[in-house]
Amino acid sequence: MTNGPIDLDIFAELKDATGDEFAAELVNTFLDEAPGMIAELKAAADASDLEGYRRAAHSIKSNANTFGATRLAELARKIELGDMPAAGDFTDAKALETAFAKAAVALRTLYND
Amino acid sequence: MTDAPGHLLIVDDNKVNRLLLSRNVELLGHKASVAENGLVAMEMLSSQSYDLLLLDIEMPEMDGFQVLEAINADPDLRELPVIVTSSVEGLDNIVRCIELGAEDYLPKPVNKTLLSARVSSGLEKKRLRDEQRRLLERFATTEVAQDLQESGFAIGGKRANASVLFCDIRGFTALSENLAPEATIDLLNTFYTLMFEAVTSNGGIVSLMLGDGLMALFGVPQPLNNTAQSAVAAGHEMHSMIEMLNHERLADGERNLRIGIGIATGEVVAGYAGTDNRATYTCIGSAVNLAARLEAETQNTGSRILVDQETLDLLDGVDIQETFGGTQIKGFSDPFDIHAL
């Protein structure tokens, strides 16, 4: 079962394993931290820093998987394994930003229901 | 859950991962500390001991591979079990972790049941290794215990220059006839505690305990700058310790203990000899026989310490009490010059 960007089974499993309150706190941490990771990805793309670029994508992928943000995770994984874009090419980073925004809305909705 | 609680260190540069892993570890009944990269983790490991490491691979400053290498290179940390938790891509990276000594690999997001099983097994391994180390240290010194663990108890030998020391309590059999069995063992325990201290504080190891005496090696398995100097220093320290013990014994109205010491230096073959089930670190060479004979000879000469010529030649600024030229030693055809210190 999915709620758009979020795989609800994975999300339920997370809540089940760690507790409702903790999962809510973890979602908030992710929503706070992710914009910083996307900023790091852009900065790395700007500076042609391959290692930093892959690490930022890797981090986002890892967290997206934790919350069942499948679409976001797929995109991040593609970036992690893909080639470095030309300096200043933010196409991938922007796609990732959009996917994150959608996942963020869905995650917030899950807690406001 | 049957585990005793352990203290785990979680190393991850991502805050969500750190929080989630800490939560999971705490829900399993263990204590969790966190580090945000490898450098911080190495600092924490050097100032406190942990039972298990949960290690991420992709990190700034110092990544997980570098942490595994640093842990491998540190004898104090080598036995710390490491479970790699990562969403790193590629089987070759996982293989590399295992080759670098990681106990296990758990893909992220970490499955709670798998984590529980791996943590239990990691903590159990740590407990067994600690137990093995404690047992080893009771019967051997730290150096031998470490050497044994590093060599994986390989039965093999090496040739080295070493000084061999034999020490024995004079007339112990007669002395113990007037003692209760418990008091005899008590006295031997005190004697061994003092003698072990004298040997190990001078870089030697006790390789054999023989009733009321012992054999100590200097220069194997750990090389020493001057094996003779170290052995003689240990010998003098043994005598001072016995004198201190005698002060106490006198106050309790008990008879003085007297010891004799023989030291010889030369090339020996040292290694673990025995079977796979029971091996002892031992040493073979004419210096071993000579040191044992010199120790026996102290009874005839009344000397505190007797050394052979090779030992004497290596000593700096030595105070010779007496030299017995051309002494015939049992088991050796040529006579020796031996020296009382």
From TrEMBL, chain A:
<dbReference type="GO" id="GO:0000160">
    <property type="term" value="P:phosphorelay signal transduction system"/>
</dbReference>
<protein>
    <submittedName>
        <fullName>Aerobic respiration control sensor protein ArcB</fullName>
    </submittedName>
</protein>
<dbReference type="GO" id="GO:0004672">
    <property type="term" value="F:protein kinase activity"/>
</dbReference>
<dbReference type="InterPro" id="IPR036641">
    <property type="entry name" value="HPT_dom_sf"/>
</dbReference>
<feature type="modified residue" description="Phosphohistidine">
    <location>
        <position position="58"/>
    </location>
</feature>
<dbReference type="Pfam" id="PF01627">
    <property type="entry name" value="Hpt"/>
</dbReference>
<dbReference type="InterPro" id="IPR008207">
    <property type="entry name" value="Sig_transdc_His_kin_Hpt_dom"/>
</dbReference>
<keyword id="KW-0597">Phosphoprotein</keyword>
<keyword id="KW-0902">Two-component regulatory system</keyword>
<feature type="domain" description="HPt">
    <location>
        <begin position="19"/>
        <end position="113"/>
    </location>
</feature>
Automatic annotation (TrEMBL), chain B:
<protein>
    <submittedName>
        <fullName>Adenylate cyclase 2</fullName>
        <ecNumber>4.6.1.1</ecNumber>
    </submittedName>
</protein>
<dbReference type="GO" id="GO:0009190">
    <property type="term" value="P:cyclic nucleotide biosynthetic process"/>
</dbReference>
<feature type="domain" description="Guanylate cyclase">
    <location>
        <begin position="163"/>
        <end position="295"/>
    </location>
</feature>
<feature type="modified residue" description="4-aspartylphosphate">
    <location>
        <position position="56"/>
    </location>
</feature>
<dbReference type="GO" id="GO:0000160">
    <property type="term" value="P:phosphorelay signal transduction system"/>
</dbReference>
<dbReference type="Pfam" id="PF00072">
    <property type="entry name" value="Response_reg"/>
</dbReference>
<keyword id="KW-0597">Phosphoprotein</keyword>
<dbReference type="Pfam" id="PF00211">
    <property type="entry name" value="Guanylate_cyc"/>
</dbReference>
<keyword id="KW-0456">Lyase</keyword>
<feature type="domain" description="Response regulatory">
    <location>
        <begin position="7"/>
        <end position="123"/>
    </location>
</feature>
<dbReference type="InterPro" id="IPR001789">
    <property type="entry name" value="Sig_transdc_resp-reg_receiver"/>
</dbReference>
<dbReference type="InterPro" id="IPR050697">
    <property type="entry name" value="Adenylyl/Guanylyl_Cyclase_3/4"/>
</dbReference>
<dbReference type="InterPro" id="IPR011006">
    <property type="entry name" value="CheY-like_superfamily"/>
</dbReference>
<dbReference type="InterPro" id="IPR029787">
    <property type="entry name" value="Nucleotide_cyclase"/>
</dbReference>
<dbReference type="InterPro" id="IPR001054">
    <property type="entry name" value="A/G_cyclase"/>
</dbReference>
<dbReference type="GO" id="GO:0004016">
    <property type="term" value="F:adenylate cyclase activity"/>
</dbReference>
